[in-house]
Fold this protein.
Amino acid sequence: MATGQITAADAVARWHEPSIGWVPPSSFVPLLEREGLLSELTTRAVDHVCANVAELAKATSALTVAIDLAPDSLGDPAVA
């Protein structure tokens, strides 16, 4: 707080549907799980976060980012 520098962030999936606004993860994550698509979201989210962290690293010396993962994702080689 003293320096105002950002040192940590939390990456959370969000979906904006133009006709209804923001859809909470609790509404779409179960659907992705049921359809076997959660690993696709996880892979895309990790890729996106890594790209953004690389960009933010130019402006800050240390940045920690937390990404919420489904327990099943931890065994997926694509996530690793």
The chain has a mean pLDDT of 84. Strands lie at 8-11, 15-17, 21-23, 64-67. The helical segments are 25-34, 38-56. The chain is about 35% helix and 20% strand.
